Structure formats: structure tokens, C-alpha cells
């Protein structure tokens, strides 16, 4: 028994809906390629049961707690840990009830679709979450979590995940990835190289992190040459754990291509903590070009995720720390910002640079035109605040006419909310099939061409772009 | 007899249209809450008949005269007064005929919908305005205006207005509001505190205005402490005339939170007329935070309306003065601009800050993410150039997925065109019901949830947010 | 026999589609007014057969080769000439096969519609281009090109072009236009005055170009007064070859209105090559106002096409030169940028300034509000990356409510791809009829009004705005 509409997110006009439904029926159960995300590798390493419904679904999901918080609910009441260790709600059932009481706040949001989908398809819930059904749903999930079928590896298989990438800091020891590999389990969980902590002079503990990088690699990271060698070494280490990409979350899309001596001098200033804010931005920007050059040798895909003003509220940052739903997109320039990088490596046919944006205005104006001409550049899927039905629709409507389908790279879920992964990919598949159906119905695409595109968008492009 | 399509602005697909129509039928005759507008309280105080069709509908409506003017019609020909008192058209019938002759210019614009609606529903006109029908329509309206049923208070009641807010300068004496209250008439007409004249160092006569504020409040407004006390005093005075909000029309969304001594020094510079343009912006920005702090005590809702380049044409400003349709939206940053204010008071659950935008790109990128997390912040409805069918649709499509419905505050008409008020609220109700119908038809919302939301968007949210 | 859907690009809902089809049937075969484009007047002067399918359709079309190049195909393989004269593909059939093999890349793009339309309607091809049909289609086109019916003038007539404007540099001798006129052929091919080479201090050979302008006009262009006189003289010369407009492709929309002595001094710096980048921008901006003042006398329409970052890749610029698909739109401000020009001449009812944008965000925020009030300002159609189905739809949805239909100027194709001209105008007519049909179906327009608007958008407005 289901409570979700089986034709959800398809175009409403009957003849177009029929086309969309037919396309979707061919791709809806394709394996999931999840080339960029933030699930915890420890889950798959230890394969312990998830703790409780609140810990699994509410407390770690910033989409959920930010909305509840926006209506005046203290983060403490949702069990979000305080920096000072102060008292927070410990009773998962109370947290769950608070969530259910306020579930109406998510009307019209993607979180609603993701949670509904997970409740129905993962846990077999047959009614919408509400104050009335809160306890019943809680009990149902709790009961499930005691079963082996709901342990991380079993869910991974149930979700039909062919490959998933987590993201680890360059100075992470990858112990959980090691444990996964040692376990003999066949699930493909790979890492990605995220060096912000050793590339961003403004990152907490930058100099210490660089020293740690030296210790881990046996390179002398007090010198520019040693620092670059350490990156090369560490990228190779990450590749041993399946990494096919690096990932860079800079405040802006700025890139630079400095002469070696200028870069070396800037690196010294960064290590000594004397970079100005602008110099720090220059250094980060230059390192993107260095990373791209390393990619020419080792084949890692370069992902650039710019444009978020992180931890916007000083109050919340002070009380709860980083990543508490207070990251806000900002206006982002790409045309001038990416030029140094693209002049350096943009013509390389074997290099893949994937750029994401939180500023949708840049898609038709800047990113589709850039990805539609530079051989090395591809356009990442709608990201974060825009990985929603409307965001995905706007993405296709504003990207396709200039960049086509084949300068995009399929979908990625970018999530730490494990149970939402099937839902998120399902939304993308439905929206893409609806978009293709509209192209057919309006004579912009022939019916015989669409199944191949639907397959590529749901599966093939991600696999190819990320070399899975 | 009607000439307007009864299903106007609903989605076109039959099954979705049916859902929209059903939702609309439940909310279309709800009372109007008009919490932000610019009607003249003198109308309701004196309750005199409106002068003539041109004076009522054309001459004061900048939406109408800007379009006519854009096609080369001199403002003089529309009866818009000149600064130098030079000759302008005095014959209302001639103005009306000119309007009717050029009514085709409004095809596809919201003005067309508003005027059609007013002609049909307020004045019982049964044919579209055109050169042919111009005189007939003019005579019909003229005849109506002689009847008591078309006096301001009668129209207020006919329009089913439960409460309306006008906007008055902080140094207004509120005499018309006083007269309304003294009259014993039951219509709820309240004021709002608009202190631009005493907050903006670049406002004409700023120092004199601040002196007047001192005189009106008995405070010494030559000192920073006295100036703040005068605001507190004046806000209390406005509250006695029903004010539940303050309103701030700054060029940018900049806010500041200065130390008291820095603010005091800046205030001295402002009074002496020696602020640089940037210092003036800093002062305005700081005063938003001061206003918010006063709101913590007196409960007024803080409205920020930034982003308009006022009186863009020097020629028109010189010949006709301010507010002649030459206010043009500009690109507006909110993420950096609002941070000082939000760090100061953004976590206050009992404070309501409503932010409006004329830069639609800021909605999905900045304002929905901000309103979707800060407890104090709400997102105002589509405003001014965007209070149209397409603008409202884009607003819901770009705001809802991140901010939901409950971080928005319903609709406000923001108008001085009295007869357009029912039309404007009707457009909002139709578009919102159409949006909800689309969510239902695409499986994003259950049918049983939508009536409550439709009611909230049409009535409940405005009433609650503005404390009416 | 056709392979294109006859109802392509119309709304999908049956009743709306029926309205759109009826409107379209009245305008689809109206003559083409092409007031802004880049066809080569030499074609019409010499009237020689076009060389081969690749030379006609692929190699000169940057929309096509940029997409192929983005997927790693070297420009050399497409026959694009190298600056160093190095080897490139010479066999047109090989180029054509490469195009056909990769034709799937254009799925969902306007290029696909344009090429399909040209193949079907111009060359009578009955099947979609594909690796399988590549040779057959090539042979078909080749055969056509040997016939007189496929020479430039015959195609001009077949395409039902009533008037077309090419664009020539201010220092072009207009020999091909002269030859067309001398030939006695009746086709209306006019020029447009494009003075970038003698207005932009950063243009290659600026000082030499200005000297040439002096030689051509007999004016002393070493002085500011002589330089302006030379422009006036040259504009008159262009008018003798039918020019009704000037066209200006500046990096930004900046305008200035400098005192004469300041302008004269800046001109001297420009001639001596000592302008800073900012001074060059000021000079370009001031010249727009000078051009507008000349328009007051000679009646030329002023077209401003700002916002493209030209030749973004240094690598491609070095290897293949200018205009190789590497022009990327940038964020563009109009509100502040156009103010000096609009203060100077914006109230002139007999002046027409047409502004284009590559930054769609500026339409609802800046350009529709500006064009909706300034008598001299009109809004150009969706341009370049946005002259597509979705771009045109977004244009109407974001421009109409504020600027109406009558502050826009119909469609122009802006193309050098001759055979795509009917297709491009057809797309515009279909989208506009679909937009009007939607307005009717949603009660925003009466059915009796739409045919006139459809006719104006397809034909009348362009003819009127460009004085054809």
C-alpha cells in the first residue's frame, strides 16, 4: 500500500505524462551512481544498526532542522549537540514527535518528498506523517532498525547503489575505507580527495594541517615543492581507496595561474598566517590550477563547488559550530573567475573539470556557454538548495539549449541523509523524463531518441564523467 | 454581465484547473487584509466622493501613466502636475479618452487585469475599455461616483476590507487617522511608521525633519540618546493609531550594528550634513538595527523594502518631481547586507523582520535560504514590478522549496490605487490556488492539505505576521 | 514529406495549442524583416553558388562548431582556418560526416531546430540527419547548390525576405552594397553603421582606423571636432546604402555624457594609445551619447549590444583568431550604466534606442522597467544564446508585464547562417503565438486582440522600429 502519487513530478497534460511515464519506466530501477556525497564510511565499515528514527532521519539532516529552527524551534530541542556540551533533548521519541507536529512546514519542499519516499519505500509506512501517526511511524521505523535488513550494507544493496563516493579530508587516514575493503564486502564505496583543510589559508589550523600532510606523506611541506609533492602523494593514496575525483568548496570560483616563485612566496605567507583575505583567495584559486595539472597526470576529476557563505550566523556558529543549516548562497562570477584555469588547462580533452553553482543566474548566462565550448569543462547538476523538482526543471530549461545534454554529468545527491538517496535520484529521473517528454511533445526531440538520453541522464553520464 | 474570464489565471489543463477553481471558491471572498499600502487616510476621514474617473483611476497610478508616457505621451496630457505649475490637461474626459485610445498598450500587463476587474466588479461595466466605449464607461463611472455607495468608506466595506494599513512619515501628525477614529466609523484603518525622512541623511531636509521630530516628541534630538528616545516616543504615538509595523525604503539592504559612540558621531555628521554617501548608507543601515531593537520592546514588525533607484530621470524629476514612475529596480545583495542585523537580532523568536525584494534573482539564491533558517526573518510577497501573475508564480516556484509557505507572509497590495485593491488580492489568490493545484496534480501535496494553505496565503499569514 | 512536427513549440494542452495554431496560421508566411544580422553582402552582390554543404552550413556557424569542439573535436577537423595557416580538414564531405556523427550532441538545442528546418524546408530532406543519412543528405544539398534556385538571390526570394540588414564597419567601402544596387536586382539589402573599430580605443589598430575614417570622409580626424564631423559624414554615406541604424557592441552598457573639452582630451589620449582600460570604457560610453545626438539629426536607430566577454580563451584566440564561439555573456548593469545617455536624450520621442541583453536577469529587474517608462528606449529581442525557444518564452514572460508588447521591437535573427533565417523567424513566431494563446487561455487577453499582436510581433514592430 502506498500513499505517494505514482505519477508524481511528471507533466500534468495527459499525453505528455504518458510519454514521461514510459521513459521513466525504463530508467526508474537503474542502479544508483552516487559520485559525490557525504555519507559516513564508518556506517559501511562497522555495519552497526542505526540508532533510532530521530538519529537516522532528523538530527543529521540540515534541510530538516533548518526549517524547524526557522519557525522558532530551538536546535537543542532537535538534539543538535552544543559546542559547550550544554543540555539538549536526548529522547528520540520526543524529537520525532516535534518533527511530526511540524511536518506541515515542509509542504511544497523537496524534504517532504524525500521523507515521504523514505517512509513509504524504505520503511513501508502507509500513511503520511502527522501528529496523529507520529508514534506509529516511530515504532515502525524503530522495529525495522532492529532487523539486519536495515543495517547500512543491507540498505546499500536494497537501494541498488552500484557505486557511492564519500568525501574525506586530505589528512583523513581513510581507516573506515580500509576497513570496508578488508571486510570482503562487495559494495563499492570510494573516497574523494577534499583538500580544503590544507589548501585554504583561512581554514582552522591550516599550518598544522599542512604539517600533518607532510607527516602522512613523508614530504617536506614547509617548502612549496614539498607541499606539491605531498598533494601528489596523497592523491595517489586516495586513489588506492577508489578515489576518482577531488572536490573543492571555495567561497568564490576564483582561479589563478601564478608563476612558481609567486606561488611559493604566497605559500610561505599562508603557512606563517600572514595572508590577507585577498591573498588567501588568490592562493586557493591558484591551487585549483595546480590540482588540475595533477589531474592531467593522475586522472582525478576536478570538482569545484563555490559560492556558499558558510556559517552565516555568528550566534549559531558560537553555540553549535559549523554546518548547522546557516550556509547561504551568494552571487558568483564564473566568466572572469575561471579564465586563468581555463587558459591553463581548458583545452585538454582528457581532463574533466565539473563546476557546480548555487547561483542559478549563472547557468544560462555563464556556465552553459562556458561548458558548451571548453573541452575540459562540464556542468554539475543542480546542487544543494536547487536539487529540487523546480530547481532541476530550471536547470534543464536554462542549461540544455546552450550546453546540450552531453556537457552535463547526470545527477549526484550530495547528501549525508542515507535514506534520502533513492528518493533524490528518483526525483531527478522523474524530472528529466518529464523534460524529455516535453521536448518530444513540442517537436524538439524525436521519440526514438529519448530513451537513450533518459538512460544517460539517470546512469550513463555520471558513470562516464566520474570514471566509475 | 461580465467580460472577464471567470477561470482567469488558473492552470490551463482541465484537471488542474478544476482543483484550482475549487480551492479558489473557498477563499475568493475572504476579507482583505492589506497590511502594507499607500491609500490616503484622508479619503476615509473625510469620506468625500472621488472627483472623476481620471482622478480616481488614471492620474495617480504610476503603473498606468508610466506606460502611456513610454510611448511618447507627455505626462502633462495625463494631468500629472508640473513642479513649475505649468499648464497640464484639466479635462478629465480628455484624459480618460487618451487612456482609452491607448488601452491596447496594457495588453499582457497586470494593469490590464486590475483595470478590467475594477471596471467590471466595482463599476458594473460590461464591455472592455476601448476608444469606442470610452465615453460610455466614463459616464458610467461618473454616475457611480455621485452615489453614496461609491464614497471611500462604502467602497472600503464593499471591498470587504477587514483591515488596511496606510503609511505615514514619522513626522506626520496623523490628523486623518485621528479624524477616522473620532468619527466612530468602524472601518479598521491603521498607520505604519515610515521614518525615512528622519533616518536617511540624504533625505530632503533631514536636519529640519529631525528637529521636527524633537518638537513633536519633546525629546532633544540634537543628541544621539535623545534622537533614539524620540523614535521610541513616536513609535508609541503611531501605535496609538493602530500601527503594527515600521517600514523602511532604503536604496540598499545594508545593515550595520555600530558601537554606540560610533553611531553617535555619525549621527552628528548626519545632522551637520557632512556625511559622505557611504556614511549615509552606514547610518541608514545602523538605524535598521536600532529599529529592530525597539521592535523587541514595542512589538512593531520591521519591514525592509530595498533596491529601488528612485527618480532615475533627472529631466522628469526636475519637471514633475518624485514618484513619477521612474523608480527602477537594481541588483541587490542580501547575504552580506543583512548579516549585522541578523547577528544582532536574527535569533529572536518574537521579532518579525519582513524583507522585500525587487531583484528576483535573490529569492532562490539568498532570501529563501535566509528566511528558511533565521527565526526572525520572513520573506515579503512579490513587490511592485513583480506583483503580477508571472511574478507571483515565479515567487512561489523559487521561494517555496527552500522557505516553505510559513516563512512567507501572505499578500500585500502596496498600492495607492484604491479600486485596484480587490483585483490585486484576487490575482494573488488565483495564482496561489493555481500553484497549490499544480503541487497536488504533480503529487507534491495531498488534496486534504491544500484548503488550509490556501486560506493561510489569502488571509491567515498576513493577519498573523502583521499582528492584525 | 516532412519529418518536423507541424505543431512544434506550441503549448501542449490541446485547447491552448489550437489557439496558438490558429494565430500562427495567420502569420507564418508573412515576409521576413531582418533588421539586424551578419549575412555577407557579397553573396547577394556576386550571386555565385554556395560552395558545398559544409561551407554553407557547418564551418561558418559558431553555434555548431562550438558544441562539437566542447566534446573534444579539434576545430581543425571542422575546417576552421588557423591563424598560422596550418593544416586543416579540406574535404567537405569528411567535415559533414563528422557533423552528422555528432549530430546527437544538438538534441534539445535550437541549432537542432534550425538545421532540421533548413534541411527539410530549404533542401527537401525527408529524414533526420544521422551517421546513416549523412552521405545522402550531403549529396542532396550538393545537388541543390548546383541549381540556380539555390543561389543567394533566389534563396533570398524563396525565404520571402522583405528586407535584410547586414552590418559593416564604419570604414568599410560598402562595395558589395554598391554592386547590389548597381545590379538592378530588387532585393532589399541594406547596411548598418558599426563603428566599433573607430570608437573603441582598445580595438586593433584604432588610431589607424580613425585615420582611415578621415581619409574616407575628407575630415581632419586628428581633432575632436573633425572626428565627430567624420562620423556624421560617414553615417550619411551609410544611409545612402539604406542604413537605418547604427550598432554598438561594447563590453559593458556604460554610457557617459562628458563636457566637450573632457571628451576632446580623452579622444587625444585614445589616439595616442595612452587610455587606461577605464578611460577607454568612458570614451566608448561617451560616444554612445554622441551617436544618439547624431541620431536626433539623421534618424538612425541606435542599437546597443553589450555584455559579451569576447574571445575568452587565449589559446583559441592565438590559434584561430576572433569569433570562434568563445564569447561568453557576463553580468551586466543597465540602471546606472544607461543613466547618462537617458538623461541626455531619453525623453526624445523621435529617437529610438534599442538595448539588447545577454544577462536575462536584467530583463524583469532593469530593462523592462526602463523601456516601460523612457520614451526613447525599446527592448531588443532575446539575443544570441537566448534566441531559442526557452529564451524567447522567458523573454515574453519577464518583459511583457512591465514593458508590454509595444516597447519591444519584434524579432531579429542576428545571424551569418543564411539558411537558418527562415527557421529562426519561424521559432519566434511559434513561441510568440504560443505565448499569446496562453494569455487568452488564462483570461489575460481577449481572443479578438491577439491576431493584431501576433502580426505586430512577427512583422509590424520590426518594420516600424527600424524604419523599414
UniProtKB/TrEMBL annotation, chains A, B, C:
Pfam families: UxaC (PF02614). It comes from the Bacteria. It is an enzyme of class 5 (isomerase). Its EC number is 5.3.1.12. The keyword Isomerase applies. Keywords: Isomerase. It catalyses: D-glucuronate = D-fructuronate; aldehydo-D-galacturonate = keto-D-tagaturonate. One of its GO terms (molecular function) is glucuronate isomerase activity. Pathway: Carbohydrate metabolism; pentose and glucuronate interconversion. InterPro entries: Metal_Hydrolase, Uronate_isomerase. Transmembrane segments: none annotated. Belongs to the metallo-dependent hydrolases superfamily. Uronate isomerase family. This is Uronate isomerase. It comes from Octadecabacter dasysiphoniae.
Amino acid at each position: 500500500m502506498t500513499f505517494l502519487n505514482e505519477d508524481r513530478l511528471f507533466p500534468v497534460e495527459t499525453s505528455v505524462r504518458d510519454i514521461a511515464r514510459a521513459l521513466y519506466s525504463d530508467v526508474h530501477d537503474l542502479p544508483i551512481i552516487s559520485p559525490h556525497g557525504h555519507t559516513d564510511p564508518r556506517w559501511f565499515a562497522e555495519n552497526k544498526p542505526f540508532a533510532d528514527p530521530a538519529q537516522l532521519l532528523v538530527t543529521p539532516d540540515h534541510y530538516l532542522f533548518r526549517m524547524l529552527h526557522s519557525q522558532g524551534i530551538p536546535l537543542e530541542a532537535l538534539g543538535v549537540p552544543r559546542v559547550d556540551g550544554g543540555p539538549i533533548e536526548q529522547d528520540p521519541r520526543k524529537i520525532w514527535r516535534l518533527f511530526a507536529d511540524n511536518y506541515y512546514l515542509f509542504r511544497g519542499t523537496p524534504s517532504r518528498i524525500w521523507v515521504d519516499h523514505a517512509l513509504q519505500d524504505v520503511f513501508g509506512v502507509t500513511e503520511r506523517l502527522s501528529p496523529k501517526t507520529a508514534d506509529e511511524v516511530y515504532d515502525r521505523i524503530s522495529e525495522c532498525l532492529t532487523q539486519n535488513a536495515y543495517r547500512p550494507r543491507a540498505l546499500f544493496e536494497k537501494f541498488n547503489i552500484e557505486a557511492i563516493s564519500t568525501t574525506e579530508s586530505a589528512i583523513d587516514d581513510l581507516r573506515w575505507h580500509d576497513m570496508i575493503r578488508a571486510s570482503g564486502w562487495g559494495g563499492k564505496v570510494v573516497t574523494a580527495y577534499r583538500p580544503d583543510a590544507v589548501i585554504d589559508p583561512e581554514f582552522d589550523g591550516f599550518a598544522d594541517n599542512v604539517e600533518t600532510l607532510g607527516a602522512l606523506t613523508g614530504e617536506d611541506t614547509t617548502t612549496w615543492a614539498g607541499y606539491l609533492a605531498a598533494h601528489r602523494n596523497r592523491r595517489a593514496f586516495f586513489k588506492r581507496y577508489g578515489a576518482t575525483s577531488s572536490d573543492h568548496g571555495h567561497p568564490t570560483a576564483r582561479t589563478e595561474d601564478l608563476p612558481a616563485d609567486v606561488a611559493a612566496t604566497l605559500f610561505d605567507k599562508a603557512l606563517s598566517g600572514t595572508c590577507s583575505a585577498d591573498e588567501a583567495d588568490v592562493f586557493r584559486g591558484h591551487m585549483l590550477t595546480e590540482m588540475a595539472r595533477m589531474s592531467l597526470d593522475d586522472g582525478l576529476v576536478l570538482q569545484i563547488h563555490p559560492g556558499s557563505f558558510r556559517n552565516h550566523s555568528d550566534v549559531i556558529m558560537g553555540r553549535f559550530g559549523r554546518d548547522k543549516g546557516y550556509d547561504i548562497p551568494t552571487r558568483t562570477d564564473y566568466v572572469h573567475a575561471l579564465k586563468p584555469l581555463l587558459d591553463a588547462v581548458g583545452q585538454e580533452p582528457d581532463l574533466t573539470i565539473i563546476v557546480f553553482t548555487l547561483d542559478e543566474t549563472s547557468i544560462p548566462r555563464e556556465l552553459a556557454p562556458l561548458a558548451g565550448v571548453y573541452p575540459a569543462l562540464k556542468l554539475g547538476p543542480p546542487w544543494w538548495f536547487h536539487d529540487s523538482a523546480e530547481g532541476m526543471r530550471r536547470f534543464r530549461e536554462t542549461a540544455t539549449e546552450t550546453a546540450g545534454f552531453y556537457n552535463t554529468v547526470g545527477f549526484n545527491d550530495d547528501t549525508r541523509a542515507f535514506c534520502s538517496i533513492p528518493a533524490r535520484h528518483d526525483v531527478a529521473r522523474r524530472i528529466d523524463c518529464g523534460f524529455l517528454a516535453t521536448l518530444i511533445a513540442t517537436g524538439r526531440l524525436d521519440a526514438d531518441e529519448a530513451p537513450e538520453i533518459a538512460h544517460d541522464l539517470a546512469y550513463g553520464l555520471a558513470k562516464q564523467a566520474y570514471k566509475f
